[in-house]
Amino acid sequence: MAIVYGGDYNPEQWPRETWVEDMRLMREAGVNRVSVGIFSWAKFEPEEGRFDFAWFDEVLDLLHASGVEACLATPTASPPPWFAATYPEAVMVDARGRQLTHGSRQGFDPSSDVYLAKALAVTEQVGRRYHDHPAVKLWHIHNEYGCHNARSYSRAATAKFRLWLRERYGDLEGLNAAWGTAFWSQAYSSWDQVYAPLPTPTIPNPGQVLDFKRFSSWQLLQLYKAEAELLRSIDPSLPMTTNFMTGSHPDIDLWEFAGAVDVVSTDHYLEGPTGHINLGFAADFARSLGGGKPWILMEHSTSAVNWQGRNRAKAPRELLRNSFSHLARGADSVMFFQWRASKQGAEKWHSGMVPHAGTDSKIWREVCELGARLGELTEIEGSTVEADAAILWDYQNLWAQEHEAKPTTDLDLQKVFNDYYAALWRAGITADVAHPEGDLTGYRLVVVPALYLMSRKAAENLKDFVRGGGTVLVTAYSGIADETDTVYLGGYPGAIADLVGVRTEEFYPLIDSTVGLVSGGTGAVWSEAAEARDADVRDTYLDGTPAWTVNRFGEGAAHYLTTFVDDATLDRIVSAAAADAGVEPAAHAPAGVEVVRRSHDDGRSWLFCINHLDHDAQVKTATTTVDVPAGEVVVHAEHP
Ligand code: GAL
Predict the structure, then answer these.
(1) Which of 10, 71, 144, 148 to mutate to test the pocket of ligand 1 (most atoms within 8 A of CB)?
(2) Where are the CATH 3.40.50.880 domain residues in the chain?
(3) Where do the CATH 3.20.20.80 domains begin and end in the chain?
(4) 350 lines ligand 1 (CB under 6 A)
(5) Continuous H helices in 314-472
(6) For residue 1, what pLDDT band results from cuts at 50, 70 and 90?
(7) From the CB of 179, is ligand 1 less than 6 Å away?
(8) Ligand 1: which residue has its CA nearest to atom 5?
(9) Of 456, 479, 459, 487, whose CA–CA distance to 562 is shortest?
(10) Residue 117: how many CB atoms within 10 A of its CB?
């Protein structure tokens, strides 16, 4: 089977003559699937209850006749103007309590029953009309749940939040205990007193804020499930997905969403100078959410986006490097937003596969080259990526750390996480992304960046992993509070003090200063008065306080860091932990050359070598040397 290749196709933005040209160009580029219908609600239902699908019948027929499959979306991410005009309260309310209005997209309140009814009505029409159209191969439910309206603070949200809390805690006694309402006289005596966390004079209750984030994520999942159930009742044979945003937008708990899709799909856009490393994480996370199965890259960009303030066009070959990085990390589909760059509307400055410049362009030539190269790689379809290492990511830990009152606002979990992921990336170590309570058997090394919120179950999970011979690398500010954000007492890190063999009495956040290490490295943001009880000390602050410790625990080892070290020191520590764990890179390559292996069970494998440097490089495996020219991608077959 072929690797899927294509992008979002929005024919409603163009006259019919352009559709005919589109079909010809899709064939020229090797496009074999497009996502359609994503923003078509206003065309499908121009007035409430009046549907018009004739134009779309033609689109699907044209695609089918051109050999292009359709990933058919439910259009529910962008209600038409009549929706907000008729039901103004069904649009979201923001965190400051302002009722928003129509004018962009995702103009709905996820807790609104009216929205749900209207979304299901149009979904039913689309489902019944097209489920057996020969072009349609996959349902694309909605678009990026929570991209703009992840949390609505409406009256409807408050009402549903109360129900959700009753389900979670049973009674007010349970709620009061979980939220620690003995503090500041916050004890609730009736459910009517509980609200979505709207603005309040000072620091809000952390339990309330955390639970509202959990509720809001759950609420979006209910919307997905309602559409999915409806479509399944119409035709149980078509698989479904919704496009996640694994590298950004951390407001929905994808660990919970992942169980509800038939195949994981994700969107990724480069941000900043190390965007290609975040790309690696987004791709590894997509693979991990699907339990290692091949996944769909539903959107990325051929060149610049339009929403970053200063939008960088991709350098020559960068489109190919990015696409191959996703492929290397387990994607079986490479798709873009969008097929044809718009000439009007909010995203007219966003690149597409057919750019404003037309086909006489760098972008089009690279789009065609990519299509041709993917066409030659059909054999890799279905192959998988094996990882000996994992890095732990939990949204709820992030949500708890987003709270304003904490030891230091300089500790940015996403930065810490990215730094540790980047160190693995630089070392050429392929990592899965794992949930703290997930199955860790099969890994040798588990990296634990600032896992402040750690349930007892997660702590036991880590301990079992190390007892059984695994190695963990744990940073400061891990194992501090349980899932209700209640601090573990008796010294930090309370949940795992025995695992790391260290006890800390007090934190000393670094305020406008750094801490020198005896090894020559530097720590920033954080320091703590750690006492190594059982652990060996590998490095210290200049005053002798432990900076890096290793504790033998059962058959394995726990590395613990009491500050956030510079990159060179981090590289050294990650290499040491990997060596302890017996984890090897996919191949030996200079930093900046990405190497990842995909294989089939029958032994056929491919080493993807992606050279992000501006000079030629060599990648060495046990048996061979692969030359990788500057900026290029080489896919090296390693069949027995
Ligand atoms: C995604 C979205 C697309 C498009 C794209 C632009 O978040 O799904 O519709 O807006 O971003 O980068």
Answers:
(1) 144
(2) 389-581
(3) 4-150+217-379
(4) yes
(5) 318-328, 362-375, 395-401, 413-426, 456-467
(6) confident
(7) no
(8) 337
(9) 479
(10) 12
Residues 6+ positions from 103 with CB-CB distance below 8 Å: none
pLDDT digits (tens, 9 = 90+) for 11-22: 999 999 999 999
**Rounded-to-integer distance, Cα 168 and Cα 170, Å:** 6
CA distance linking residue 357 with residue 335, whole number of Å: 20
Buried b (16+ CB within 10 A) or exposed e, 321-335: bbbbbbbbbbbbbbb
Instruction: Indicate which atom in ligand 1 lies nearest the CA of residue 147.
Output: 7
Residue with CA closest to ligand 1 atom 11: 337
Domain 389-581 has CATH 3.40.50.1980: no
- The answer, yes or no, to whether any atom of ligand 1 lies below 6 A from the CB of 211, is no
Instruction: Tell me what pLDDT residue 639 has.
Output: 83
What is the spatial distance between Cα 160 and Cα 146, in angstroms, rounded to a whole number? 17
- Ligand 1: distance of its center to the CA of 147 in Å? 9
245 Cα: distance to centroid of ligand 1 (angstroms): 10
Sign of CA dihedral 355, 360, 361, 366: positive
For ligand 1, say whether the CB of 580 is within 6 Å of any of its atoms: no
Cβ atoms of 480 and 493 within 8 Å: the answer is yes
CA geometry: angle at 361 spanning 359 and 363, to 5°? Answer: 95
pLDDT at position 212: 98
Closest residue to atom 12 of ligand 1, CA basis = 305
Say yes or no: CB of residue 140 within 6 Å of ligand 1.
no
Residue 623 reports pLDDT greater than 80: yes
Alpha-carbon gap, residue 221 to 382, rounded angstroms: 28
Name the token pair of 348.
């007219």
* Total residue count of the chain as it appears in this document: 640
Distance of alpha carbon 262 from alpha carbon 161, whole angstroms: 28
pLDDT digits over 168-213, tens only? Answer: 999 999 999 999 999 999 999 999 999 999 999 999 999 999 999 9
Encode 131-157 in three state secondary structure. CCCCCEEEEECCCCCCCCCCCCCCHHH
Cβ of 352 less than 6 Å from ligand 1: no
pLDDT tens-digit readout, 418-434: 999 999 999 999 999 99
Q: Two tokens at 188?
A: 């609730």
What amino acid positions are annotated as catalytic residues? Answer: 144, 299
Ligand 1 mean position to 229 CA, how many Å?
25
Q: For domain 4-150+217-379, say whether CATH 3.40.50.300 is its number.
A: no
Global pTM exceeds 0.85: yes
Long-range Cβ contacts of 584-590 (<8 Å, 24+ apart): 584/388, 584/429, 585/427, 585/428, 585/429, 586/428, 586/429, 586/430, 587/428, 587/619, 587/620, 587/621, 587/626, 588/428, 588/619, 588/620, 588/621, 589/428, 589/617, 589/618, 589/619, 589/620, 590/617, 590/618
Q: Whose CA is nearest to atom 10 of ligand 1?
A: 347
- Which of 544, 541, 545, 517 lies closest to 529 in space, CA to CA? 545
Instruction: Measure the CA–CA gap between 554 and 532, rounded to whole angstroms.
Output: 18
End-to-end CA distance of the chain: 22
Q: Scan for tokens 């064939």, then name that residue.
A: 27
